[in-house]
């Protein structure tokens, strides 16, 4: 079973994917991700900003390679520590700008129906 810290890192990566998947990075989405990060009980060896930077690079590469779903599937074990929080976080980001992009919805549905089951 994954640790709480592994969950924290996976949650940051999930949040990053959710706000970047539609190609429109809005300030309110970025602020929400920052609030989520601030709320984590961070115990990592790497700083939270280092993990966020790494997540941005990984997510950008996954989106470019059309492998967003595979990227999320790779986070499964860590996200299973708190499935509800992972789904709630993804939904919050998806709905934060008042507009649900099709790519966001598709990724959320994949997360809910295929990854966190």
Describe, in plain words, how this protein is organized in 3D.
The structure is a single chain. The protein has 7 helices and no strands. With 117 residues, it is an all-alpha fold. The relative contact order is 0.21. It has helices at 4-20, 27-39, 48-64, 68-73, 76-79, 83-95, 102-115. The model has no long low-confidence stretch (mean pLDDT 91).
Entry keywords:
117 residues, mainly alpha, 7 helices
Provide a short characterization of the protein structure.
Helices cover 72% and strands 0% of the residues. With 117 residues, it is mainly α.
Number of helices: 7
- CA-to-CA gap between the ends? 15 Å
* Proportion in helices: over 70%
Task: Count the E strands.
Answer: 0
Give a short account of the largest sheet. Answer: none
What is the ordering of alpha helices and beta strands? HHHHHHH
